[in-house]
């Protein structure tokens, strides 16, 4: 089991002040609750469930499962037999039973600091019911899938909750994805409608979402509900950036009356009342796509009851939620972090959150600190990549703002390097705020390894210990469990309520990806080290995935985008360390005969990847590779390419390499800095 760290200098005191009021006040309390959650999960989760409204109670055990492929189908069931509604539990329950109707649910802060509004719980409920009625009018029924391609505006939250109210399954696609990615996701989950906006500003840049949506829909004609982004109708005269007023171009919105429906028009015509659909505990709640190592994104499916319980409890304990908190998670709702820790977890706790549309450096590099001061943010959750980006600008931008409201800091998306951890703890948190470094995945639904702010002694860079109900172990290549200090595959022995239930429409892929390698265990795909004090440290991915700025990208998907270019015969993509993004993409391309490698081609290839996948997947380096290092059986040796990208001359054992000369040629042509 986990032990307290005793070595001096390694750990930082964890308590952020009022430890006695914390939900988990100290480490022995954590251990006691943890033991109960593993040994008596039914008793433990039943208590958590008692906070919520169930139309019908569960009939059998709270958690039932099989993790062993040799014994039959993999399944997880939570609260089997119960019926409930997610939207009712996060909105109606707070408004009607807890009298929180006048509490602010979201402070929306737009791309420009001039655009902001407060939305109370009762206003949120009214808008969600209206949107639910609109969806029903458009023919959406329980079980139907709804694609949502919206920026970080209140309508995104209204739409996702409206889906959950009527039992529709939302599939949110990050508004930075290309039309090809959007189309692929709409087709895979057979969505019956798409909700999008006319456009959005990211910093200074205008993105015409409706046009991208139309390109996607050419391949799959669906009804389209369009939100007008109000900020696009406003001429911005923010003099702090630029002495002449900036007039952003107003979006030219393409329109097809046969398919397109205007949000403002239809929302005004429907009632603010909508009865919730009572759903089975294991009915689907949403599908969210995550990169897969075969290159085709996987539709991760989460279900109603388990996801509600798990996001509720993780939010409550990891951020030690108190009634006077103002919480801000800087993620986009297009990712799992936004689903779990902007929408569902905070609302289930009756929390007040900031919903932020902007970027950290617009209109100035102090924007995050300005927002923290503006709303008196107490709990702040962001990604290591954002911290490293803001570190570059030093302490000056922070010193203009009052950050004394902060009580807890959190990080998500990738392991945080100790240098960034110390800057975050010392400069942003002024050494007063514990840092909760949370490890989890789209698939886990919520935090699985994490410190608890008043209870866990911290070590910079470690995700520390498992959350309640999570039973980790480390295996070697042969599937043997490793005791004590060890490094190997991070796996989990049993489910927690928030774990994914399947890959949408592809149970076989679900079982093969997560359960086949080591029967009896959920395999995370991450490697991990446990130190002598029992702390867990995530050390990287085991499969062909790369973590760029906290987003998992599939090397196979990027390689296939590159090889679709007429000049490219073969491509291989590896990671290289990057001071801001953590890892960046370094690509090797072998050209077809008589094609010339030049900077024009490099630009074309970068554009190609952006169009196929989206800007987040844009390569940083593209190197000409007359040939790639391969084994005699023709397998590309990615390890060697990784070392070339990093300029590591000591390549170790190359005996399996078919043609060793390839390596010297590649070293002679590598890029030291990005082109």
From TrEMBL:
Q: Name one GO biological process term.
A: acetyl-CoA biosynthetic process from acetate
Major enzyme class: ligase
This chain's source organism reads Oncorhynchus tshawytscha
Give all residue intervals belonging to the AMP-dependent synthetase/ligase domain. 100-502
GO MF, one term, reads:
ATP binding
Under the heading Gene3D superfamilies, the entry gives: 3.30.300.30, N-terminal domain of ligase-like
The source's superkingdom equals Eukaryota
Subunit structure, as described in the record: Monomer. Interacts with TFEB. Interacts with the 'Thr-172' phosphorylated form of PRKAA2. Interacts with CREBBP.
Q: What is this protein called?
A: Acetyl-coenzyme A synthetase
